[in-house]
Design a protein that fits this description.
The chain has about 270 residues and is an all-alpha fold. It is globular, with a radius of gyration of 26 Å.
């Protein structure tokens, strides 16, 4: 049975191209939308949404971590749902871009500066990959559903394991991201002369990034063999199952012989 760690290595080592594409798409969408004009009444709507963040900011540091993580994890969980997940993914990017635009208006700074502030913070570089991982899993679930209807549900059942590991991975990333974000908030709310200390948050981020990069390199080397082994195990389970792709296994030869013997025919065809 493939372990959680091995499944994680397959995700990181084999699925990273799609995750990277979605991550780059996130950055592009946010930049483009944030520089686009609001539709009628949109500004008031997103200003109101921006003002609701004060409820979280007025809490203790621990309360902020819980509030930020809960909100982000809820969004990521919906993004995991097949089809609906990709729509939620796009909507969350749109809302993020509009909130950035609102911040630029409220604080009377350019959109470019507001975007720079967003991408200057380490927490952003943790949250966006987490959402990209969720959206990528949504794509894989759609494909697994397609294969399920086409050739049996074994691959879909296998994908459920990847889904569960992705949920654990996303939760871990978003917890770390929430801690980084609250640290950034606490520093920025302090005296002006100490706000530059927010730059220090990049030190632990670099350590985290170095660890992730090391794991990714190892996972890329190990993933092909792990995926091949996982596929072989799945094939063995299919052969051992009484149902394969919705069809029963062939009847054993011994049972066929017994069923087709003269004695059984005589018994089946005996009359009173």
């Amino acid at each position: 049975m493939t372990s959680i760690l091995d499944t994680l290595k397959i995700i990181v080592g084999k699925r990273w191209p799609l995750i990277a594409i979605l991550f780059l798409a996130e950055i592009a969408v946010i930049v483009v939308i944030a520089n686009s004009a609001f539709f009628p009444s949109e500004l008031a709507t997103y200003k109101q949404q921006y003002n609701t963040t004060s409820a979280v900011l007025n809490q203790s540091a621990a309360g902020q971590v819980v509030g930020i993580f809960s909100n982000n994890f809820r969004v990521a969980t919906v993004e995991l749902i097949p089809v609906l997940g990709l729509a939620t993914f796009g909507l969350s990017l749109y809302e993020t871009a509009r909130i950035v635009e609102v911040i630029s208006i409220v604080k009377s700074v350019g959109v470019g500066l507001a975007l720079a502030n967003l991408f200057f913070l380490p927490s952003t570089w943790l949250e966006l990959p987490a959402y990209a991982i969720a959206a990528a899993e949504s794509v894989y679930l759609v494909y697994a559903l397609y294969l399920g209807f086409k050739s049996g549900w074994a691959k879909f059942v296998r994908e459920i394991r990847f889904l569960l590991v992705n949920v654990i991975l996303i939760a871990g990333i978003l917890i770390v991201a929430a801690i980084f974000e609250v640290t950034e908030i606490q520093v920025e709310q302090g005296p002006v002369q100490t706000q530059a200390y927010v730059l220090l948050s990049w030190i632990p981020f670099v350590v985290v990034f170095a660890g992730v990069l090391t794991f990714w390199r190892r996972a890329r080397r190990a993933a092909p063999a792990l995926e091949e082994r996982d596929g072989a195990e799945m094939a063995q389970r299919e052969e051992a199952s009484p149902f394969i792709g919705g069809q029963t296994q062939p009847q054993p030869q011994g049972e066929k012989d017994a069923a087709g013997s003269p004695a059984s025919r005589d018994e089946g065809g005996a009359t009173t």
